[in-house]
Fold this sequence. Notes:
Layout: E1 12-20, E2 26-30, E3 38-48, E4 55-63, E5 68-78, E6 82-87, E7 93-95, E8 100-105, E9 111-120
Antiparallel strand pairs: 1-9, 2-8, 3-6, 3-7, 3-9, 4-5, 4-8
Amino acid sequence: xxxxxxxxxxxxxxxxxxxxxxxTTGNVVTNAAASGKVFKLNTVVLSxxxxxxxYDATLTLYxxxxxxxxNLVSTVSxxxxxxxxxxxxxxxxxxxxxxxxxxxxxxASKVDVTVSFEEIS
Length: 121
């Protein structure tokens, strides 16, 4: 498990993943083990598309290198018909090989997550 040297890269591909969070943890972005890539997360946005009720959301990052899962946000309230920026360009995060961004919400199918990232190899 080694991340490529991001000073001398061959390709940088812009990607966007979207998902509807369930009531149990589901993967949103996965950098496969031995991928030879590092992912630079540029933006992560939670959106509550319910018109009347706020829902809680949790996003976690599993670090294969550390062998541990840590919260990016934990049971953060996303107001009705609103979005919450979890990560933006000023707080970019790198995912090495084997790392996983995952999440869940207090109610299934009420909160979307959109992730914009660069796949670097």
